[in-house]
Specification:
Elements (H helix, E strand, L loop, with lengths): L16 H11 L3 E2 H11 L8 H13 L3 E7 L5 E7 L1 H25 L1 H5 L3
Antiparallel strand pairs: 1-3, 2-3
């Protein structure tokens, strides 16, 4: 459990959101773990940070579900890194997850902006 105030300027991820973010990131191409976390951080405007204690268990879970695959490669620095990529099943899952996420955003938007709903009643 994080120390109170530790994430004051960062958004904590909803359960299940990390899987969606990893799948989306890998849609852009194969990456190793650190690059995945950096891509999420950069593409979120520095608002989302994924620590290794969350990232690697999620990567292993997605690999067990066959949504991603991996292999060991040599990096530009001549170090062995595990590179992950999206599988066909992962692409299908990403579409389903994005659809659910869109529905969730619409539902929350309806609650946060009830005036637009009331005008229809």
């Amino acid at each position: 459990m994080p120390v109170k105030g530790c994430y004051q300027n960062h958004i904590e991820l909803l359960q299940g959101t990390l899987d969606l973010l990893i799948l989306q990131t890998l849609l852009w191409g194969a990456l190793h773990g650190y690059s995945i976390s950096q891509a999420i951080r950069l593409h979120s405007g520095e608002r989302l940070r994924v620590d290794t204690g969350s990232l690697y268990p999620a990567l292993h879970r997605l690999e067990r579900k066959k949504w991603i695959a991996s292999d060991w490669k040599l990096s530009e620095n001549n170090q062995r890194v595990k590179v992950y990529w999206l599988t066909a099943a992962g692409r299908k899952q990403l579409l389903a997850e994005r659809s659910r996420w869109t529905q969730l955003l619409e539902a929350i938007g309806s609650i946060l902006n009830p005036a637009s709903k009331e005008s229809k009643i």
